[in-house]
Q: What sequence folds into this?
């Protein structure tokens, strides 16, 4: 199988690594990709002299056609919401990722609420604000914790959760000033769960549950980020929890999308809070999560390409159950100084050593660039991911932290408490 992956972050690096282990894959390409991925795939930063624009369906289709790709795997949400999957399908190319019409489940939080309400899925109550004149009146109806969301694509960074009303109002105003509507939601209590499901129409196949750490600093302090680390599976989750999420959330939503005439095909990411009444949806995303994917795929033993191809071709229901390594996996993000507000680029990374994906721990590249001198430098907010698999959370943590401690990046930082509460048994539901 010839596969083209779209994207350039550590999630796409993790996808390439999993795909490279599938014997059915003969050729791996990525557009634009990154300098840290050239050992796994041919990178295509340009097409016909122009930089790759992942939102440009015509350009991506032309590249996939030239490469004779059997399957295109779209990593980020932006091309999916822009309709790149539709352009590829119109050209007869199989795509892992939903249509533009279905990707709106991430692109518009108001649409997602409407689907959930119609499907009877538990979620926070929400009010949409389109004019700054309505901010105060809407905030009056919420609190003491305010959840204020950008109702557009914000890469996980458009949400402010705060008990400070002035901060909530200021965030709402800044989102409106940037031209997007705002969603104010009731606060959902309880630990967060990310459950990814392969979805093909009404067929839903869950992966292992994971947990992201979205705040920049230890103890969930600091600003929201795209995600600073994650682990899978979740030892504190009851045994029937995944099936409950599938039954109560993912299958009803998949059926509702079919009923609306926009069947879902691809990866449906349910971001949930597990409160006293069970799972409630915080958000849906229309693609693999980052950084949870890096931990989840580290445990997958089923060849990935066949699952992605079967989803894309409407054959998901024919596949045997997914198989997994025993134990746990963890990823820790090394971020650049100033992330998320103003990440510092250009600092040299030391300690990377030779690439080795064969052991229980390895590095994935998120935002790096290789200089002419052959050194890797920071080129994004999230720079690298240390990923490790272990017999349990404690073992995976020890290996991931040993690896990240061997890396050096001036001003770079990482959280030291990824999965620490899970390891200590401090999460209960
Ligand atoms: N883990 C957060 C996200 O992928 O949006």
A:
């Amino acid at each position: 199988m010839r596969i083209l992956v779209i994207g350039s972050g550590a999630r796409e690096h993790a996808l390439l690594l999993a795909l490279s282990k599938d014997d059915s894959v003969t050729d791996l390409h990525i557009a634009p990709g990154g300098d840290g991925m050239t050992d796994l795939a041919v990178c295509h930063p340009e097409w016909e002299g122009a930089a790759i624009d992942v939102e440009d369906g015509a350009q991506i289709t032309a590249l996939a056609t030239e490469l004779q790709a059997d399957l295109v795997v779209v990593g980020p949400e932006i091309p999916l919401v822009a309709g790149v999957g539709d352009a590829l399908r119109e050209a007869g190319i199989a795509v892992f990722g939903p249509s533009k019409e279905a990707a709106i489940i991430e692109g518009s939080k108001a649409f997602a609420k409407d689907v959930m309400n119609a499907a009877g899925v538990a979620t926070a109550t929400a009010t949409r604000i389109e004019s700054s004149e309505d901010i105060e009146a809407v905030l009056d109806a919420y609190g003491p914790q305010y959840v204020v969301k950008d109702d557009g694509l914000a890469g996980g960074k458009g949400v402010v959760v705060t008990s400070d009303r002035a901060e909530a109002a200021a965030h709402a105003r800044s989102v409106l000033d940037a031209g997007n509507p705002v969603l104010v939601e009731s606060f959902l209590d309880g630990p967060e769960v990310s459950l990814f499901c392969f979805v093909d129409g009404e067929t839903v196949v869950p992966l292992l549950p994971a947990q992201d750490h979205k705040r920049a600093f230890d103890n969930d302090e600091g600003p929201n980020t795209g995600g600073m680390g994650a682990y899978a599976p979740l030892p504190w989750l009851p045994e029937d929890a995944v099936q409950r999420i599938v039954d109560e959330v993912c299958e009803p939503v998949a059926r509702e999308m079919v009923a609306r005439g926009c069947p879902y095909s691809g990866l449906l990411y349910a971001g949930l809070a597990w409160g006293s009444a069970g799972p409630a949806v915080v958000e849906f995303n229309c693609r693999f999560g980052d950084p949870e994917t890096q931990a989840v795929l580290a445990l997958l033993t089923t060849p990935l390409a066949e699952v992605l191809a079967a989803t894309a071709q409407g054959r998901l229901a024919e596949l045997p159950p997914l198989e997994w390594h025993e134990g746990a996996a963890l990823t820790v993000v090394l971020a650049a100084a100033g992330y998320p507000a103003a990440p510092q680029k250009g600092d040299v990374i030391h300690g990377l050593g030779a690439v080795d994906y064969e052991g229980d721990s390895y590095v994935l590249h998120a935002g790096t660039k290789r200089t002419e001198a052959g050194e890797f430098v920071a080129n994004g907010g999230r720079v690298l991911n240390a990923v490790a698999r272990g017999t349990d959370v404690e073992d995976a943590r020890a290996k991931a932290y040993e690896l990240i401690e061997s890396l050096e990046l001036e001003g770079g930082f990482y959280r030291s408490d990824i999965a620490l509460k899970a390891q200590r048994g401090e999460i209960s539901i």
